[in-house]
Amino acid sequence: MRFCFFALLLLLPAFVLNAQNKTPILERAKALYKEAKAEFTRFEKEHGAFIQTKNTRMHYLTWGNASGTPLIWSHGSLTNGYELFDVAPNLVKAGYYVIAIDYYGHGQTPIPPHEVSLYHIADDLKELMDKLKIEKAIVGGWSRGGYISTAFYDAYPNRVLGLVLEDGGSVNMNTYYHQMSPEKLDSTLRKIEKDWPADTSYASELEAYYANYDTSSGGNQFNLLAWITKNRKDRWAISPGVIDLFHMRFAKQWSNNILRFTRAPLFAESMSILEPKIVYRNLNVPVLILDPVSENDFMPFEEENSALQKQHPAFITHKIYPDTGHNIHYESPQQFIQDLTVFLKKVKAHHKIR
């Protein structure tokens, strides 16, 4: 459960003591934040780096040794490379060299001043591979990151050993919406707009840190700092500017993304026009499609994924996760690691890699 720590400060007397260490709550908040900042700095020094591409100064994380099989990962919307934080060490044990990027507006990578698309991110990935002297890699991602991975294969197929598509990138994004009647689509988009959380910003990084601190987990949760960035008003927020980059602030924008994508900005248009059935028509590398199924599945693409697998049975593995939400690597981390471990063996066998 997310907990607004500073709201509590307004309700409690200033000298309420923490039951365990007798430290005033505000002092405990500052101490945890200071600890988180120090650990974040240490972690970044060991795992973090930047590359200046043609488009942006892109941040990325690495885990493992460059002698492993490279897995270049693109995250989902409103997250960043730290989304693999809990599973990366076990992926390294399985034989991967894990590289997780932050793309535009997420983590420590700014939104470029010029128009960009999923294919611009693919270009950034190619530049990163060149910098790290990686000839070929397994390319993968979750949700929107899966579509970035598909765009990369479309642009640079000869740089791909295999693909991991976690609930994204294997079916056109708007397929589900196109199956709705105009009336149903309109009501769905209006509900999304109504329920969309308001932008929240904070006067300090410390406030933002504790507003999003998970009290049920404890610890300093230093990786939370990767989500917090200054916005244009010099306040602190989670991924500021990203919703506008996605063109998803209002129902009308969602509608244009889905039905009139040439009216949308380039980044949103590139998401809508990406058609995996075309991109993968001449598929010649292994692909792992991770497909969660749940009662409220907003990407119910089991049939489409099954059809794609039947077109390329020698290359595509379609793995269904029953009773699982959109974020597989968070909800079912052990199964995620196991499936990627098996997939690595398939990729090595296909390319005759020892």
TrEMBL record:
InterPro entries documented for this protein: AB_hydrolase_1, AB_hydrolase_fold, AB_hydrolase_sf
Domain AB hydrolase-1: 70-201
Recorded GO MF terms: hydrolase activity
Keywords: Hydrolase, Signal
Membrane-crossing segments per the record: none
Gene Ontology terms: cellular component: membrane
Superkingdom: Bacteria
Endpoints of the signal sequence: 1-19
This protein's name: Alpha/beta hydrolase
Species this chain originates from: Adhaeribacter swui
